[in-house]
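Lab notebook, bench 4. The sequencing result for the construct came back, and we need a structural model before the next group meeting so we can plan mutations. Quick request posted to the team channel:

Model the 3D structure of this chain.
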Amino acid sequence: MRLSIVTSALVAALVGFGSTIAIIIAAAQAVGADAAQTSSWVAALCLSMAATAGYLSVRYRMPVVTAWSTPGAALIAASTGISIHAAVGAFLLAGGLIMLAGFIRPFGRMIERIPTSIAAAMLAGVLLQFVVGVFQSAQGTPGLVLPLVGIFLVVRLFNPALAVLAVLFVGLGIAFGGGLARPLTSDLTLSTLTFIAPAWDLTALIGLGLPLFLVTMASQNLPGFAVLKASGYEPPSSPILAVTGLASIVTAFFGAHTSNLAAISAAICTGPDTHPDPKKRWMVGPFYALTYLVFAAFSAALIGLIAALPPELIKTVAGLALMGAFMGALTSALSEDSRRFPAIVTLVVTASGLTLFGIGSAFWGLVAGLVTLALDFTAFALRRRG
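Done. Here's the predicted structure in token form:
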């Protein structure tokens, strides 16, 4: 047991919650959720993260970190004319389809056959945007970001596990002490869950439920499995999908959309900075779950706190926390000479931010890398025959 286990779990949860909560709020507003329903939505998601990450990590002895579907939330936020009750019906459909995917064996085998170098390159492409984002943020608020980078570099020399935590607390002090944060608008009242009856609107089921399932699978679960593979684990795809799908169904009745594997947050918890021994990194799961239980209890207050912080602070904490994971993913992606070019293709397509048919660049980077790898192997086989 190391302190880095606790700090990795805490930072991953804070980054996952803080960097995407605004999208959840926008999604809730798009479907007409009131304040109580929005708070219930967030609290139910946090309870789902606690239950799924805690159970799966302990059960399979690997750092299985879960999250809510950020692309899915963006999809909901872009929707129009759908009520909260119809949205809940769509969420139930998406959760049911995710659970069903867990019992379809060809899907599990497809995930397990993704080459580690391609998976690592996709992860590096995703993380690159966050790492670069630290120094992009420095252009707008150098007085906030540059001191935090300096603190990170110095503390890391003595204790890498405490470096990001030091950045987080010093950043909070600078933000509130320096007048960069907005006034807090909420108190520390406990959150409550609000039952929301589903409405079975065919338009919402087809127009929101089905795309939500596809986006969650392509942009969250596939990259999530790839992150675990890139860190040397062999995740059991079917049970993970079944558990997250079931959690999505249960929490949908309280306004929450889909739960799934994390990618960015998971990268903080699956590398050597969490624990040098890969067999002991699973211990991050219970602490991650405990953090999200606290988030669930105070979701309304946390919504106000995160909204008050400058976005540059969230970006800086996330980017610095992912430096080690980016280094590890890049090293793994380029380690095999025969797969180096497909890995580079995967990385650049993923980092490009390409979005087609509502599906994000992580999926298309994976597709591009696998196609390039297949073409390379085909050309090699033809040359041997000739």
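Strands lie at 66-68, 259-261.
Will bring this to the meeting.
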